[in-house]
Amino acid sequence: MNQSVHLESELKKALAGNEFRLFYQPKVNLSTGKIEGMEALIRWEHPEKGLIPPAEFIPIAEESGLIIPMGEWVLRNACLQTKEWIESGFSPLVMSVNLSVRQLYQPNLVEAVEQILKETQLAPEYLELEITESMMVDKNLVIEVIKELRTLGVQMSLDDFGTGYSSLHYLNEFQIDSIKIDQSFIRNCTSNSYNSSIVKMIIEMAHRLNLKIVAEGVETKEELIFLQKNSCNQGQGYLFSRPLPAEEISKRILEIEEIVSQKGIFQQLHNKRMMEEALESSRQELRDIMHQQQGMIFKVIKENDRFIHTLCDGQLMYRMGQNPEQVIGKELKDFLPPNLAKEKTKYYQMAWEETENVTYEAEHNGIHYFASLSSVKNNGQVTGIIGSCVDITEQKRIELALKEKNFIYQIITDHMLDLIGMLDINGKVVYASPSHEKLLGFPASHFLGDSVLPLIHPEDIPALHEQFLSIRKLKTSRQLMMRYKHANGGWVDIEAKVSPVFNEDGEIKYFIAVGRKRSIEK
Length: 522
What we know:
The protein has 522 residues and is an alpha/beta fold. The protein is built from 19 helices and 20 strands. An eight-stranded mixed beta barrel has the order 1-2-4-5-6-7-8-9, surrounded by four helices. The protein has a five-stranded antiparallel beta sheet with strand order 12-11-15-14-13, with helices on both faces. A five-stranded antiparallel beta sheet has the order 17-16-20-19-18.
């Protein structure tokens, strides 16, 4: 038994034996010093090996699917602990729970969260679910899941912000309540000008979009003061507390809440001059970074029913043959063809009217780009529009090439007579060619997600099982003979060659089976 299989087996026992523990790390308001939230972090207390780091078992849990029951255990116990703290007289706090990739894409996630909230009797506004940018592979599905979760009253947070290519785009696209600046940017932000500039820009953009901003990985008082000066809302890190069990955190509440006043600039935060200087410095650095970033950012205001650009910069603008002087202070019709200006004005109006997720694709001077718009409010009134654009020229080229390849591939698969199938390591079908319906009477979709064994003649199964064991052991191809059930009730003799497909570590990941019909027995 290899190590990962052994660990998976131990994980199952750990779930049944209640070997998991929750540790909590506080999120501290950097103005008041009060704890406003906690992040729940799972730990495995192995009876023989002691505490096992999450990095060693979370990937195995994710791959095996155990992350689903494990995630529900974390969510349920975190909600129970939050309810206990609130009922004990602690100031109401928001509990943050991380969602894994598999959890986010499980079909019944919203129902599971709703059921746990009912069981624990925790008000949904005290629960925050954290996702990462890398998890947003299926954009449309994630948008719908987030909408449904927010309908429950649950808050959503984007973790590890700043590490992805299109982070700003995600802020406009998804309904996020808060973002967490990745600790890689907080680290050395007082001595590294690049980190400093990135952190300031993220904080400034978050405030403009009415998002709460949390800095993770705060370890020194210098980092604390830097974040305070730049109006970061919350901090999380070893400066305040390591992740600790609930009983230890409870004992340290007052101690933790004194750290901001002891090590930060608690009183000076009210110094108007200091705040203005810090804000102006942030604005200048924001302008410098905007000019250097690969995409394009712009701001629009509305005067006398005219949309006027007050800010526009980024390398994408120059690649399209424009510069800020051509755009700032102008309407769309002043620098775009009339038909394109009219089309874009519709999107500006939609964003001004607070339509959610205003996005569009466009092309200018041979450059294809994707734009996202969101309204900016002041005292509840829309005062402007923030837009961001990313270059998708290469994606468009690849998309066109893929469409051509897929078209050719579809023609081939639709007309081939051989059966082609792909099975996972457990023998479940993950692909079946259209020829299955021609030869066996069942549509290709009939085979997906299930084992092929129920459709194999019972007398052939033992030999087939032995052959598969041989393939897995020797890691070589085999010729197999079997009788497949036809939709009309008869049997079809199939001769197939089954070959293993390996991953980067040399382990079998899939099996490819190519077969053909020999005869039909009634």
